[in-house]
Amino acid sequence: MPEIRPGRSKERYPAPKVFVPWHDATPGRHPLLELFGGLEETVPFRKYPGDDSAILAAAKATWAEVTPGPGYMYVAPPRTPPEIRAAGFRMVETTDDVIVVAQSHLRNSPGMEVYLDIIHEFLHILQRRQGRVIWPRASLAYVDRPTEIEAYAFSIAEARRLGVPDSYLRRYLRVPWATHSENLRLLRNVGVSVPRSPR
After folding, report:
1. Coil vs helix vs strand at 99
2. How far apart are CA 35 and CA 10, in angstroms?
């Protein structure tokens, strides 16, 4: 049984108390619901589209792979997309349902960010199980992918339910692999207010 770190109560916008990630998990594969304890008890888990028993079965069949070093989360593709390989990165590759989690993100990021990320990434698992393509051609910008817009909108709805303001969401949605104009487009695509330009 993993040792769970106490909740981060000092955070201004903490994740729900029922959500208890295993922050000190070692690199390697872990059952999704073991690494992210309580995920199946959260409000968004009950709001995923589809049959509740099938969604729980999908969660029980999904792995979370902790990788050493920096990074975020993503659903492992069967093959690293060409544009990512061209940028010098190689992803965890598998045909299994695996959500890759950077160890530093799991250990050091605010609890709310880890929470929003995992409910976002698990929605991608469900999208893929529906036959949708979550790693489309590079010609479609990341911020315009229907699967990404849907997943971000889902996690943002939960953040707002928990009282998270747009100022926090703007920082959360600032992804380093998108340009400034693309980041602004992502805000518009998911209904988060765009900051006013200085006069």
Report:
1. strand
2. 22
- How far are the Cα atoms of 14, 22, 73, 113, 131 from residue 171, in angstroms, in the given order? 16, 24, 17, 10, 31
* Per-residue pLDDT tens over the stretch 5-32: 444 458 899 999 999 999 999 999 999 9
CA distance 47 to 32: 18
Structural tokens at position 130? 């529906």
Nearest in space to 162 (alpha carbons), one of 26, 31, 11: 11
Cβ–Cβ under 8 Å, residues 53 and 85: no
The packing angle between helices 146-161 and 180-189, to 10°, is: 70
Contact between residue 48 and residue 118 where contact means Cβ atoms under 8 Å apart:
no
Tell me the three state secondary structure of residue 29. Answer: strand
Task: Give the Cβ contact number of residue 151 at 10 Å.
Answer: 23
Q: Could you report the per-residue pLDDT of 93-133, keeping only the tens digit for each?
A: 999 999 999 999 999 999 999 999 999 999 999 999 999 99
Percentage above 70 pLDDT, the chain:
93
Q: Supply 81's token pair.
A: 């997309």
Domain ranges for the chain? 20-189
Return the SS3 of 11. Answer: coil
Strands 63-67 and 28-31: antiparallel
